Amino acid sequence: MQIHGLHSELVEFHALDDAQLAEIQKHQNQDTNTDLKLELSELLESELPWAPLTLEQVKAKFEELQKENRKSVFGIWAKNRFVGLGYFAADWDPWSPFIAVLIWPAHRRNGFGSETAKLLLRAAFEHSIAHVVECTVPEWNPAGIAFAESLGFKRAGAERRSGVIGGKFYDRLFFDMLRSEFDELRSKGQV
Where are the alpha helices (DSSP H) in 44-150? Predict the structure, then answer.
């Protein structure tokens, strides 16, 4: 069976064009939400969340991410609006892909993040050799931790003192979901 694109009645995934890249750059440079800047910095693999980025730098970051095999960064659309970013990577281990979901704050708590994560889990477990799917959440993000746990991810460990905010170290928490756990959730209609 060939997959032509992941979507549901609630969300669709689209390639990013210049308009979305400009919106991402605006969020990174002008948004007053510090947590969002940190989340974007993590997704862009930029170690300087406080540093302003030009549109060309944002484009270059996304082009760099998209060049890698078995890795995708894409826009999440809901009701014809660009509401966030999704990320799927099986570049270093196709048995253990990594997913990330970032919904813009104005669009959170509408089910877009949950639906995106469920689509990515289905893609990993139904259309690849994955036996486990992973995600990470920094300890300073209790909403992100609750989100991962609500989807059925289990805490798998931590990378201690992996970053610094305000002069204080924080840990990065690792979560995962085994294929058997996904199968159980699917049998209950939860994914």
Answer: 55-67, 112-126, 142-150
How many domains does the structure of the chain reveal?
A: 1
For residues 104 and 11, give the distance between their C-alpha atoms in angstroms, rounded to a whole number: 14
Task: Return the pLDDT at 44.
Answer: 78
Nearest to 15, CA basis, from 86, 78, 67: 86
| 1 found inside a domain | no
The pLDDT tens digits for 148-183 are 999 999 999 999 998 888 889 999 999 999 999 999
**Inside any domain, residue 156:** yes
Question: Which of 82, 113, 81 lies closest to 100, judged by CA?
Answer: 113
The alpha-helical segments, DSSP class H, found in 31-178 are: 34-43, 55-67, 112-126, 142-150
Q: Which two tokens stand for residue 98?
A: 């990594």
CA distance 151 to 115: 10
Question: What pLDDT is stored for residue 1 in this prediction?
Answer: 38
| Average pLDDT along the chain | 90
Domain of 78, CATH number, reads: 3.40.630.30
Residue span of the structural domain in which 30 resides: 12-187
How confident is the model over 40-90, as pLDDT tens digits? Answer: 888 877 767 778 889 999 999 888 888 888 888 999 999 999 999 999 998
